[in-house]
Amino acid sequence: MVDIDWSTLGFAYSPTRSHIRYHWKDGAWDGGRLVNEDTITMSVAAGCLHYGQEAFEGLKVFRQKDGRVVAFRPDRNAERMQRTAVRTVMPPVPTEMFLEAIDRVVRDNIDYVPPYGTGCTMYVRPLLIGTGPQIGVAPAHEYDFLMMVMPMGDYYKGGIKPVRAIIFDDCDRAAPFGTGDIKIGGNYAASLLAHEKAHGMGFPVELYLDSATHTKVDEFATSNFVAIAKSGAYVTVKSRSVLPSVTNLSLQELSRDLGHAVEVRTVPYEELREFTEVGACGTAVVVTPVYEIVRGDEVIRIGSPDACGPRLQELHDRLQDIQFGRAPDPHGWCREIK
Ligand SMILES: Cc1ncc(COP(=O)(O)O)c(C=O)c1O
Predict the structure, then answer these.
(1) Mutation test of ligand 1: which of 60, 240, 283 has the most ligand atoms closer than 8 Å to its C-beta?
(2) 3-state class (DSSP) for residue 260
(3) In a 3-state reduction of DSSP, which class is residue 282?
(4) DSSP summary character for residue 24
(5) Domain 6-152's class?
(6) Helix H segments across 170-300?
(7) Are 183 and 174 within 8 A, CB to CB?
(8) Taking 80 as the threshold, does the pLDDT of residue 302 lie above it?
(9) Residue spans per domain, the chain
């Protein structure tokens, strides 16, 4: 067993026994191999270094109450990575290969899957990169698909903490017909400066409005926008430049299970002050309540700074209960590592 203090684990990189790596050349993927070093050697002219041919994903593996080890909806991440690959002219990783990669790399690092009861999980980070040399602007001729795993701490050790969000009107993340709906490093590079500025001002998250008009909500830098309307409906954003979040999709399905209406639609900025709860949702946190949104001199107050609203708390707990095997999994979202 590895010697890890699960109580102090955060959300940070830590090397494990291995990652798995597949290589694509001449139109086909090889059979993949487990690699013990956490470094990579590639051409100085690799396509990912020069023209940003890089896609990634993020998902979690849970050790459940009965000891089973499961990945949460990995087929969804496989599909999203395939869409990203098509958009950035890289060879898509077939779903079967993606799932096989999870099985192999998690099995090889099984002692790094945190014990049930610690609140910790194993984070899985798939990465697809153009590694073939490419100096003229064009897709590379060779690619690597890597999947690394690392144990990750319980994000909400002391209970869910609501946060403040900020909107900057001088920084956009994704162009209207750009790449906001796929998961490439470039989207995050585009938001890093605003992210650092927000952190420096004491805001853990930034909220982006649509870049064409700055009148509609898009999403947070690393998570989707969700809200509860006065009518009780679960509201989330429909936009061409938002990343389709697996967590958001799951929360929508859980909301319907609970008998609540789900609205996936345009959310005007002006509507922000109407919501009873607002949250940022994604794999790492499930949902972070947002109690205040600041834009220039304007401050929109939504909920309590001390506690998550009841509806988002319920959705958070329901999802975690399924993920950790404390409740039935009626939709078949948890896939056991074989
Ligand atoms: C921009 C962005 N939106 C939304 C999400 C949430 O997606 P998911 O729930 O699939 O983790 C993420 C995180 O992956 C993200 O980076």
Answers:
(1) 283
(2) coil
(3) strand
(4) E
(5) alpha beta
(6) 185-200, 246-257
(7) no
(8) yes
(9) 6-152, 163-323
Q: How many CB atoms lie within 10 A of CB 268?
A: 12
Q: How many CB atoms lie within 10 A of CB 218?
A: 23
Q: How far is CA 20 from the centre of its chain?
A: 20
Pull the structure tokens for residue 235: 């509201």
Return the pLDDT at 326: 98
For the CA of 246, the nearest atom of ligand 1: 10
By the 8 A CB rule, do 305 and 162 touch?
Answer: yes
Q: What is the pLDDT of residues 31-46, one digit of tens each?
A: 999 999 999 999 999 9
Nearest to 184 by CA among 87, 293, 279: 87
- Ligand 1 centroid, distance to 242 Cα (angstroms): 9
Domain 163-323: state its class. Answer: alpha beta
Q: Find the mean pLDDT for residues 149-162.
A: 87
- The two structure tokens encoding residue 44: 């100085």
DSSP string, 172-183: -SS-TTSSTTS-
- Residue 274: DSSP 8-state: G
HSE of 275 in the Cβ direction (CA atoms, 13 Å)?
31
Report the distance separating Cα 305 and Cα 308, nearest Å: 8
Q: Which ligand 1 atom minimizes the distance to the CA of 250?
A: 9
Sequence letter at residue 156: Y
Name the one residue in this structure whose structure tokens are 């602007």.
Answer: 137
Q: How far is CA 245 from CA 94, 278, 334, in A?
A: 20, 16, 17
Q: Enter the pTM of the model.
A: 0.97
pLDDT at 156 exceeding the cut of 80: no
3-state helix, strand, coil in the chain (%, to 5): 25, 30, 45
Length of the chain, in residues:
338
Q: Which of 89, 20, 26, 93 is nearest to 52 (CA)?
A: 89
Of 38, 22, 43, nearest in space to 112 by CA: 38
Read off the pLDDT of each residue in 70-81 and give the average, rounded to a whole number: 98
CA distance 221 to 213: 18
* Owner of token pair 């023209």: 51
Ligand 1 atom at minimal distance to the Cα of residue 243: 3
Question: Ligand 1 centre and the CA of 26: distance in Å?
Answer: 32
